[in-house]
Amino acid sequence: MTIDPDPDLLLDARGVAKSFGAVRALTDASLSIARGEVVALLGANGAGKSTFVKILTGALKPDAGHVRIRGAETRVGSPAQARRSGLVPVYQEPSLVPDLDIADNLRLGGTDRDAFQHWMEALAHPDLTLDAVVRDLPLATLRIVDLARALAAKPDVLLLDELTAALPTDLVERVLKVARAQAEDGRGVIYISHRFSEIAALCDRATVLRDGRSVGEARIEPGVEERVVELMLGAKIDLGKRAAEIARPKPEGRPRLAVQGLAVAPKLKDASFTLHPGEVLGVVALEGQGQDELFEALAGFRQPAAGSIEVDGAPARFGHPADAIAAGLSFVPGDRAHALFRERSVRENIAMPFSARMRNWGPLRLRHEKARVAEAIARLQIDTRAQGEVQRLSGGNQQKVTIGRWLAHGVRTLLLFDPTRGIDVRTKRQIYPLVRDLADRGAAILYYTSELEEVPLACDRAIVMFNGRVVDIVEATEADEARLMRAAYGLTATEGAA
Amino acid sequence: MSDIHPETDDRVPPLLRVGRFLKDNPLIPLIGFLILLIGILEVMRPGILSPFWAGNMIKFAIPLAMLAAAQVLTMLTGGIDLSVGIVATSAAFVTATLTPLIGPFPAMAVAMAVGALVGLVNGFGAGIARVHPLIMTLGTGLIATGCLQVYQRFVIATGSDIPDILEWLGTGRTAGLPNGVFLFLPFAAFILWVMRFSGFGRLLFALGSNETAAKLSGVRAWQVLIALYVLSGLIAALTGLLYLGMIRAPSLSLAVPLVLPSVAAAVIGGTSIFGGRGSFAGAIVGALILRVIDTMLTLARMPEGARIALFGLIILAVTALYVRFTETR
Predict the structure, then answer these.
(1) Tens digit of each residue's pLDDT (9 = 90 or more) over A469-496
(2) Helix or strand or coil: residue A459?
């Protein structure tokens, strides 16, 4: 559905495109807001949502297309200009200077104090003193402060980006009420959220992004979830044979890893599952549902606040990644930059865990090391033409190096966090059978992926996380994307959770 | 489609290519620069080049190169050790004053223990309290300076003596070469081995390159840092012993003027102060270069103050130039 050029539109973004190097983040994104409208902007992970938001708010310049605010031909040039022209964003992470008090923060942004106080009262936080230092305040309060500050600027278009994530229910209700009031005042609101319950309560319309394009719009009415999920999924390219079609016995016996009631600040509240040798367990979640905390706790990077981890039936506590490694848990993080020594060689990158323990600080066992590294390189088919420095390899080969490190070291339990993010299809097709093969040789693999179509390709089962909890367990044979997507949006087990 | 990063492409500007060549083979231009400087020296004062002069230059480059080793190792992790000057001085002073009381070898052992102790405190600060090594080693250096002055009051009456072995190492010559090489060659071989062929050396590069990745590989940074700064303290103390044998006059600031040149020698030798990249062979050439420059300034018969100021200026200029050439990206 298209909208004719209309001077009454508060915001009109059309044909917005943006590439980062060879990666096309957006090809053709559009969004319009009329007076009195609340519009939800939806899209799965990697659909280009955050790039689009950055362009709307002037943090990035589009390669093509335009953003008009109030029908004027003003092209947004900077965040400050976007603010002046009437579009004010409020993000999940409050943009306040932590070491200043509230009053100073208001002064920095030129916010009117009386207006701010008025909105704080409307949001039911009248007792906040302005000389409180930002650093000392809880996150929920800061989000409200940030929102009140934005409202005090009398924005024509208010952009709320995941503002309600991890906010207590009563505050969520007030935020929704204030946003609704904005629309009734003839202003516009862009609402970004993973929660359908909030979208249903607040929004008039939803516009969906997929693979960098605006693929459709939907009026918010009963049953709209189905239509939105359909739009978000679209048609998919074939990536390889489904793992689920290969018959595999159900896991039995003692689990390699048993997680019970695990809670890790800030986002993981309650995760329980078991992982058996020979099994690839997928983890499906939208961004920020606690999966980062889950993996980092299992890898020894964070300490759990509650719950237990058992490895081979024995309770385990990981104070440092070295403890996790000693218990056989190897972690491949989502961001390769965290895992690689950029200016060191492929061999050194792969062999690093060999030297980690103090008893191995002496002479390098070069022959042993070379043999193990060569084996890992051969198994992963790493292109070693530029092996002198890892930073000269392609992204896919760099990713293989991070996995190869643990192949060389010996894998018992592998924690793969989005191992195929940002790599080419050919490399992806090499990684699925490799994961399968490792499992067949007795490894237990936990596999988080931001791409739903990978679940039936690589996993036996998948746990679905929403809002810090494991909300569903899906057999790979039943793991069609629509079901996973619905579960990931909290539409099955805990509908309406806040 | 090429899997190789475009950086390896041939179509790069010539200056960048020179820079990249220097980055990949930092020793070649360094040695060239050293030879050039020696050539200039010969032009300034024809006939100065002789085996004796060369031996002398090497002799005074050795303590500088040893302290530079401490800088290279700490800089690999992104740190630095500014306490080496006062540690070397303390080691020399303690040895000289204790030798009449407890004999030469126990005195030297105490001196080495002092180095290890300061290193341990540095390692605790840098590795566990996570104080920046620059601040940490400046702080411990100051504390050690104070302690040394207090210590001096206690031993003021005992007199001082320099162990024979140190005098032999510091002043003697064998076949024209200073005896210091008998200490330095095994020392250099050990440092080069640590950096290239030991697990510990690999971890130093790893910590400087990417500490998160090192942690992910199971490396406990604090263990490495404590061991590193203890090693650095031991190197400084050993240097102090050798320097005592050379100068034969313990004072409370014996080796302190060597600190900045030791950092400069490491940086000129291609060690990055940001960590992850470094070469001890380069630092040795860097120490020789600094000694030749020092000789040139002495020959120019400048007043002491001007000489020191110019030396500082040249160190900064050479370092800045070299870094500019090799860090082009």
Answers:
(1) 998 888 887 777 778 888 888 776 444 3
(2) coil
**All structural domains of chain B with their residue ranges:** 49-326
Tell me, yes or no, whether A212 and A307 share the same domain: no
pLDDT 10s digits, A255-289: 999 999 999 988 899 999 999 999 999 999 887 88
Residue of B nearest to A394 (CA): B3
Residue B133 Cα to chain centre, angstroms = 16
For residues A69 and A191, state if they share a domain: yes
Looking at domain B49-326, its CATH architecture is: Orthogonal Bundle (1.10)
Instruction: Name chain A contacts of B277, Cβ cutoff 8 Å.
Output: 343
Contact A18, A169 (CB under 8 A): no
Contact (CB<8Å) B5/A386: yes
Question: Is residue A456 a contact partner of residue A478, using CB atoms and an 8 Å limit?
Answer: no
Between CA A105 and CA B64 the distance in angstroms is: 52
Our CA dihedral for B262, B268, B273, B277, rounded to 10 degrees, sits at -120
ipTM of model: 0.85
> Does some domain include residue A257?
yes
Strands A64-69 and A306-311: unpaired
Pairing of strands A268-275, A257-264: antiparallel
Helix (H, G, I), strand (E, B) or coil at A310: strand
Listed in sequence order, the residues at least 6 apart from B205 whose beta carbon sits closer than 8 Å to its beta carbon are: A341, A344, A348, B76, B195, B276, B277, B278
Among A202, A233, A264, residue at a domain's last position: A233
A21 interfaces chain B, CB cutoff of 8 Å: no
